[in-house]
Amino acid sequence: MTFTSRTPRVAAARKLQRRRDRDQSGRFLAEGPQAVREALAAGVVVELFATDDAAERYADLIAHAEVVSLVSDDGLAALAETVQPQGLVAVCEQVDVPLKEALGKKPRLVAVVAEVRDPGNAGTILRTADAAGAGAVVFAGDAVDPYNGKCVRASAGSLFHVDVVRSPLDVVTPLREAGLQVLATSGYGADDLDTLADDGVLAAPTAWLFGSEAHGLPPALLDAADRQVRVPIYGGAESLNLAAAAAVCLYASARAQR
Amino acid sequence: MTFTSRTPRVAAARKLQRRRDRDQSGRFLAEGPQAVREALAAGVVVELFATDDAAERYADLIAHAEVVSLVSDDGLAALAETVQPQGLVAVCEQVDVPLKEALGKKPRLVAVVAEVRDPGNAGTILRTADAAGAGAVVFAGDAVDPYNGKCVRASAGSLFHVDVVRSPLDVVTPLREAGLQVLATSGYGADDLDTLADDGVLAAPTAWLFGSEAHGLPPALLDAADRQVRVPIYGGAESLNLAAAAAVCLYASARAQR
């Protein structure tokens, strides 16, 4: 039996494109073979929807899913947010953990996206933090939902590799109590990233705080942090794009912590 | 007199949203106060369209434009590609220079986007290269048009700060002849970025080659380069997003060249 966009199970899964339904159900959608593979490896796939073609092409993935439902092209199009999901969409259990649990593992590198509302930026920072060896990424305050489809796609699977945390905005005290120095990024920060690297400051376990591109970090977080750090600007640009600045900071830490 | 979307001058300017018309006319559109300010400073504004409100709010910009045309909200909406252009769109002369001219200034840091087709990625790399102190950014081969509206916006004004070059794909020889070592980025590169930094290699004048996120660099460019360099991955991610990888590489050079 092949489901269509009007089959109740498909219509119900489609609702997970909305935050309210994700929050209520504790589930979300992952689309495309890469994300589905990572979700299966993480053991969080509740149901895998696949077209006939995809079921054949990705037989290895199908074999690892407990519940597989074949869908028509139209059914898949209803579930997918991209034009090329390559025939696969999985309903997954949400994977985030409490802050206490993530910090209990004593990560040496943590990224905090505080009130970052752009899902592409947040997902890219999640991917970059994972690449730089971070143990946890904290979505703090009124940040984008980490299970937003665009964020999931921008994370390119990293949502399943690091501890993702959703937390209120006042994260500085618990981060510090977990032995992390807390570095807030700001275009007007008193400390220059390259100078901190020269002085050996970045070798210590570190949590980086990143604010929204439009507003930066909330003053309360800037004030609570151990340092306010700016990425040096060597040319005529006024600033860096948020995800680029995060990449430079996280990799400066990764290099210092080797 | 206030122009509307049907005024021939507005309709003609609107055509610059299309590459063919940009290529034929040698002009492009810049929207919003930041881009317009930079374009005016660069002396390339041919005509500035402004709503009544914007003409009042940005009187300093209006005063510096030789030709100002007031447009209705509907006329501005026709010219703008974003929902919030803040009432300003400028027709500008294209600013790119020949490769020979850019290299004649002996830049110590150059970024090449080779066949990068995503305008957001290309514009972000342009902005990051500017911030890192690069003298030139080369759009090589079948790369996105640097005057694509999304690229212009992602560059956040950097289009007007560095030498932008459009060139065929075979850039390695002229770059090397200008005294630059040519480093090609590749997820499979034999050289690790952090090791090159440790060994002092990055202090030399450098041109970085970045390929498309989907296909990487063309084999001919990888082979022609002096080294193939990978950004180290310390965690579970397979790779970095293109613009994030470029930020890490360009800032590693900037730091080494201080």
From TrEMBL, chains A, B:
Keywords (A to Z) from UniProt: Methyltransferase, Transferase
Residues spanning the signal sequence: none
Any one Gene Ontology BP term: methylation
Family annotation (SUPFAM superfamilies): alpha/beta knot, L30e-like
Claim: Transferase is one of the keywords in the record: yes
Chain ranges of the RNA 2-O ribose methyltransferase substrate binding domain: 29-98
InterPro entries for the chain: Alpha/beta_knot_MTases, MRM3-like_sub_bind, Ribosomal_eL30-like_sf, rRNA_Methyltransferase, SpoU_MeTrfase, SpoU_subst-bd, tRNA_m1G_MTases_N
Pfam families: MRM3-like_sub_bind (PF22435), SpoU_methylase (PF00588)
CDD domains reported for this sequence: SpoU-like_rRNA-MTase
Any GO MF annotation of the entry: methyltransferase activity
Highest taxon listed in the record's lineage: Bacteria
Endoplasmic reticulum keyword on record: no
Family, per entry: Belongs to the class IV-like SAM-binding methyltransferase superfamily. RNA methyltransferase TrmH family.
PANTHER family: RRNA METHYLTRANSFERASE 3, RRNA METHYLTRANSFERASE 3, MITOCHONDRIAL
Protein name, UniProt field: RNA methyltransferase
